[in-house]
Amino acid sequence: MGGNYTQTEFILLGITDSPCSQTPLFVLFLLIYIVTLVGNVGIISLVRMSPSLHTPMYFFLTHFALIDICYPTAISPRMLADLLSEDKTISFTGCMMQFLTFVFFGSAECHLLAVMAYDRHIAICHPMLYVTIISSHVCWQLIASSYLFAFLTAAICTWCMFGGSFCGPKHIDHFFCDIVPVLKLLCPNKYRSEMVVFAFLTINVVGMSMVILLSYISILCTVLRMCSAQSRARAFHTCTSHFMAVALLYGTAFFMYLQPPSSHKSLDKVASIFYALLIPMLNPFIYSLRNKEVKAALLKCGRRLLSRWQHKRVVSPRTRGLS
Fold first, then answer.
1. C-alpha to C-alpha distance for 282 and 298, rounded to whole angstroms
2. In 3D, which of 164, 156, 115, 155 has the Cα closest to residue 138?
């Protein structure tokens, strides 16, 4: 058990080892996953269907919703299957791909939140230049750079974690192949891997949080210089949803990843459930319930669908009568 070896499979210990709680947890997390998919697909569909939402802010929001679909999908199906199965083994390749996918989409979300903060900064601090600075071409460049940096981070972290040998037991004390529990299985000479992974996580979490912080400092200074209380309230309102999403994600990310490995306790699983499963479910509600434009577009789409349905009901009897 103590020597270096190439691992072929791992065993995920899961959320709980209590048989009585596994079925209720399966139902709960299945509902969370379904709500996540419906909510984020709904956001993407609404933005595409509503011309009033064809702006850079909502363009970024559709990619944000897409990421919130993808990275729970890297975890939830496997976790749900494990809750109903006694065999919780996962192959080395399966674990590596789950790790790569999760880190990629998690990093992309951090970068995208920074991009959205920059977008709000330009909209509030330089409104006359907004259309020129945040053009369609620039929007695609920002999205592409977010995905590119996220892929580089995921590829390098995955190589550091799975490119060497493992020691000790093959049990992963978690419900998916996350960074901290997999690091515990690396061989004693894992210091270099830990430092590289920690450096890239610091760049993503701390670096992007600094971009967000500086953007909000600039926004705050601009808002405080506004003469009209109504203008200040409108400016703050446009940032509320984004600020809540940032606080939820970065709060749990700082707790989970930017602490020494020896400090990790059983609360890690709770934090992982929160940032990997609950936050993607909550984000559509944060961006819809607190956003007047989204609510107005939703009502308009609802009226349009209702009028089409009523029109079909009126036309259908007539066509039957003619036939």
1. 18
2. 115
Strands 9-12 and 171-172: parallel
Half-sphere exposure of 30 (CA within 13 A, CB side): 11
User: For residue 115, what pLDDT is reported?
Assistant: 94
- Model confidence at 318, pLDDT cuts 50, 70, 90, reads low
pLDDT by residue (tens digit) across 213-271? 999 999 889 888 887 777 777 777 778 888 888 888 887 777 766 665 555 555 678 88
262, 104, 9, 16 alpha-carbon torsion, rounded to 10°: 60
Residue found under tokens 């709680």: 21
Tokens of 310: 């009523």
Q: Tokens 């920059």 map to which residue?
A: 118
Q: Is 63 exposed, middle or buried (0-12, 13-18, 19+ CB in 10 A)?
A: buried
> What end-to-end distance do the CA atoms of the chain give, in Å?
80
Q: Which two tokens stand for residue 257?
A: 């990843």
Closest alpha carbon to 45 in 10, 25, 69, 24: 69
Own/partner pairs, 179-186, CB within 8 angstroms, 24+ separation: 179/99, 179/103, 179/257, 180/256, 180/257, 180/261, 180/264, 180/268, 181/268, 182/95, 182/99, 183/261, 184/261, 185/7, 185/10, 186/161
Q: In degrees rounded to 5, what are phi and psi of residue 163?
A: -85, -10
b/e per residue, 188-222, with b = 16+ CB within 10 A? eebeebbeebbebbeebbeebbebbeebbebbeeb
| 280 CA to centre of own chain | 6
Residue in the structure block whose two tokens are 């920074």: 114
Residues 277, 29: contact at Cβ < 8 Å?
yes
Identify any residues that bridge with 91 across adjacent strands, giving them in sequence order. Answer: 9
Question: Phi-psi bin for 168: left (phi > 0), alpha (psi -120 to 50), beta?
Answer: left
Say what the pTM is: 0.85
